[in-house]
Design brief:
The protein is α/β, with parallel strands linked by helices. The protein has 2 domains: 2-110 and 192-230 and 409-431, Rossmann fold, CATH 3.40.50.2000; 244-405, Rossmann fold (3-Layer(aba) Sandwich). It has helices at 17-31, 66-76, 87-97, 131-140, 145-152, 157-168, 176-180, 182-199, 208-216, 262-270, 288-300, 318-322, 340-347, 359-363, 378-390, 395-398, 409-431, and strands at residues 2-6, 35-42, 47-53, 56-62, 80-83, 101-104, 202-205, 224-226, 248-253, 277-282, 307-311, 327-330, 351-355, 370-373. The strands form 2 sheets. The protein has an 8-stranded mixed β-sheet, with helices on both faces. Strands 11-10-9-12-13-14 form a 6-stranded parallel β-sheet, sandwiched between helices. Helix 3 (87-97) runs parallel beside helix 8, helix 4 (131-140) crosses helix 8 and helix 10 packs across helix 15 (378-390). Residues 244-391 form the Glycosyl transferase family domain. Residues 15-109 form the Glycosyltransferase subfamily 4-like N-terminal domain.
Length: 432
């Protein structure tokens, strides 16, 4: 069976969990000697460049037309397309070439025009996408957009979309262009999602929460299969580090950005009265907005010596970085589709304090291998951290429980390949 894996943007990027996960499954499938091709999408220049990655073909796709991409896929003749990005496009091409397309949902942006299933009130969104529901959220993500919302919501959707179409033909004007194109953006996102709904053969949901969100937005439940992510397990059998003098080291691993709730975490931690505690932040920013956000937080909390910023650490070094720490914190305020950082911490025998944001509930049993609190709740987070600090003696006995819930990348890839085979068999039965 020949498998085409469509990467989340640049295959070699480690910007987000989707990129890290994608590279993990490709490396493991190569190890399992699967027949594999990888597409990596880049924004610079134009054309298609074929490269070799660990003995397989990797195509770097740079701003090409759909027909050219379809011709390439037709020449490669994969038995299955597994799309982690360019999802609507791959569904369209898959339908045209009669190739089954499997999609993995990596973030709320698959259904959410604002990108994270986080509404303008900083609550996890549980309504279907529409112009009315999504406009305040999309404008909120645009600089000065919320000031314009009371006026822009007065426009009929058709008028607003028409305005966006006209602005496409004009030179970019800061603030005006993105605000004027908000309705057009929502409309395009809904059309993309409809292509996915109609064209995908199967949708992989890493957690039940994103499955429910996609069903709310019209995806047939029969097309969805819940498969939690797997991770490369640590080579060494780590255990919970000893807690010297009762000093607990909390730690966060991941992107430093707003939807991950770092501001909520720092606000809660800074209110702790105890001195025998540390918070280690391991990760970096990936764009201008995230750099501004990180810089603001570093300035605000620079006087708290208990907060240590480590910067970005490459995935292969994460296990070593956290081996001497105690409690992982994953405090996303948006819907988190899985949470590789949670799985990595559990695999190391660490405990995890997380928000109920979707992916965390798939991995953590409250009070057994960690703790769950409501998202975007400074008081609840601070109270739970105080409980952990005051009950430090119970932590070692909980430390080993989490490993049982972690799925290895080896088993995960076998599950994926079995799904590919099952879908291919269904295709052959239908064609007969």
């Amino acid at each position: 069976m020949k498998i085409l894996q469509v990467a989340s943007g640049n295959f070699f990027s480690t910007y987000g969990g989707g990129q890290v996960y994608m590279k993990n499954i490709v490396d493991e499938m190569i190890r399992q000697q699967r027949s594999l091709i990888v597409f990596s999408f880049l924004d610079n220049s134009n054309g298609i460049e074929k490269k070799n990655y660990k003995g397989i073909d990797l195509y770097e796709i740079k701003n090409v037309e759909r027909n050219e991409l379809q011709q390439l896929i037709q020449a490669i003749r994969p038995d299955i397309i597994h799309a982690h990005s360019q999802k609507a496009l791959m569904c369209t091409i898959g339908q045209a070439l009669h190739i089954p397309v499997i999609i993995t949902a990596h973030h709320g942006g698959i259904v959410c025009p604002a990108g994270a299933l986080l509404n303008f009130k900083d609550e996890i969104c549980n309504v279907s996408a529409s112009h009315t529901n999504c406009l305040p959220c999309v404008l909120r993500n645009t600089r000065s957009g919320m000031y314009w919302y009371p006026f822009m919501k007065q426009l009929a959707m058709e008028q607003y979309i028409s305005l966006g179409e006209k602005l496409k033909t004009k030179p970019f004007i800061p603030f005006i262009t993105p605000i004027g194109q908000a309705a057009l953006f929502i409309n395009c996102k809904q059309k993309e999602w409809q292509n996915i709904v109609e064209g995908c053969t199967r949708m992989i949901a890493p957690c039940h929460a994103i499955k429910e969100a996609m069903m709310h937005n019209g995806l047939d439940e029969k097309k969805i299969i819940v498969i939690p992510h797997g991770i490369p397990l640590p080579v060494n059998a780590y255990s919970l580090s000893s807690i010297e003098n009762g000093r607990i080291r909390f730690f966060y691993v991941g992107r430093i950005c707003y939807v991950k709730g770092i501001h909520v975490l720092l606000q809660a931690f800074s209110r702790l009265a105890e001195d025998n505690v540390e918070l280690h932040l391991i990760g970096g920013a990936g764009n201008k907005g995230e750099y501004r956000y990180m810089a603001q937080l570093q300035r605000k909390y620079k006087k708290d010596s208990r907060i240590i910023w480590h910067g970005k650490v490459e995935p292969e070094y994460v296990f070593n970085e956290i081996k001497d720490m105690h409690v992982s914190v994953a405090v996303s305020i948006c819907m988190e589709i899985f949470g590789l950082n949670i799985a990595e911490a559990l695999a190391m025998g660490k405990l995890v304090l997380a928000t109920r944001c979707g992916g965390a509930e798939m991995q953590i049993e409250d009070g057994v291998n960690g703790w769950l609190v409501s998202p975007n709740n400074v008081k609840a987070l601070k109270t739970k951290m105080e409980d952990i600090i005051s009950n430090v003696s119970v932590i070692p006995s909980m430390g080993m429980a989490g490993r049982k819930s972690v799925i290895s990348i080896e088993e995960h890839c076998k599950t994926l390949v079995n799904l590919y085979k099952r879908v291919n068999c269904e295709k052959e039965e239908t064609s007969h």
